[in-house]
Prior knowledge:
It holds the Pfam family FrhB_FdhB_C. By secondary structure, this protein is of the alpha/beta class.
Amino acid sequence: MTxxxxxxxxxxxxxxxxxxxxxxxxxxxxxxxxxxxxxLHLFMRAxxxxxxxxxxxxxxxxxxxxxxxxxxxxxENVDAMKTRKGKFxxxxxxxxxxxxxxxxxDEYRSSSCRFCTDLTAENSDLSFGxxxxxxxxxxxxxxxxxxxxxxNGAVDNGYIEARxxxxxxxxxxxxxxx
Length: 178
Ligand code: SF4
């Protein structure tokens, strides 16, 4: 779905595009950028900034809907969802939060996630995730000189507040990655 949107943007003549995706989405774009077949002529027309999201699994829309509905929750009443520390957290529009065991969603997990080895979207210009950082902060890794420039520019201009990960925090990211 994300690739479809990207290709549509490029075909419409947008030549400077920020693409946000999970590690496997970022890998797909990287392969398309490098491939000497097919899409290369399109990618030569556009600069694509790749923004990756740390990812350990995704679940089908129908699966999430079915599990939540079995607990009497309809998607219309959901404000936000996230997986965190092995749990699936759902925040409802009235502010209440419900936490589920990830195992409940097992049968709806994408099959490719069982083979995936890339937690931190290593082929991104910048990647973002909660692993390694305290609650309320985001771990950001820069994967290219361009990503580094953009990140430091945002810090220098006061758009974001940043500090380096401590050794322990970085170790946590590396352990999860392993
Ligand atoms: S865990 Fe699954 S959805 Fe996430 S990057 Fe890997 S294959 Fe893609």
